[in-house]
Amino acid sequence: MIKNKKYDYLKWLFSIINILIAIYLLKNNKYIYLLLYSLSIYVMLITVKGKELRILGKNAKKEIKSVVWPKKKEIIKTTIVVVLVIFILSIIIWILDTLISGLIAIIINKN
């Protein structure tokens, strides 16, 4: 296990160095840039953490497929309800603001 960790660190270091070389030195040569970048991603994915990342990605993809997305009618109905509730609450807050402002004006004018 310790040997694997050591090799994984070396793989990550190799990949990071490759990516940095590709980014800073080989910007103009797109094919070598893509080759180094692809090689680095591949090396990262064969490490223990890379395998865990692939499993996480597969599980996330399965989870997204299992989500029940709302239909267009449900979205429209929900949007209408939200807009109406916001409109009604804004009117209520406007009325309360007007009443409180009036009461404050009356209190200030009495003094």
From TrEMBL:
Any Pfam family the entry gives: SecE
Main location: membrane
Keywords of this entry: Cell membrane, Membrane, Protein transport, Translocation, Transmembrane, Transmembrane helix, Transport
Compartments (UniProt record): Membrane
Record bears the keyword Cell membrane: yes
A GO BP annotation: protein transport by the Sec complex
Transmembrane segments: 9-25, 31-48, 80-108
Keyword Transmembrane helix assigned: yes
Entry GO MF terms: protein transmembrane transporter activity
GO CC entries: plasma membrane
Family per similarity comment: Belongs to the SecE/SEC61-gamma family.
Main function: Essential subunit of the Sec protein translocation channel SecYEG. Clamps together the 2 halves of SecY. May contact the channel plug during translocation.
UniProt cross-references to NCBIfam families, sorted A to Z: secE_bact (TIGR00964)
Oligomeric form and interacting partners: Component of the Sec protein translocase complex. Heterotrimer consisting of SecY, SecE and SecG subunits. The heterotrimers can form oligomers, although 1 heterotrimer is thought to be able to translocate proteins. Interacts with the ribosome. Interacts with SecDF, and other proteins may be involved. Interacts with SecA.
Name of the featured protein: Protein translocase subunit SecE
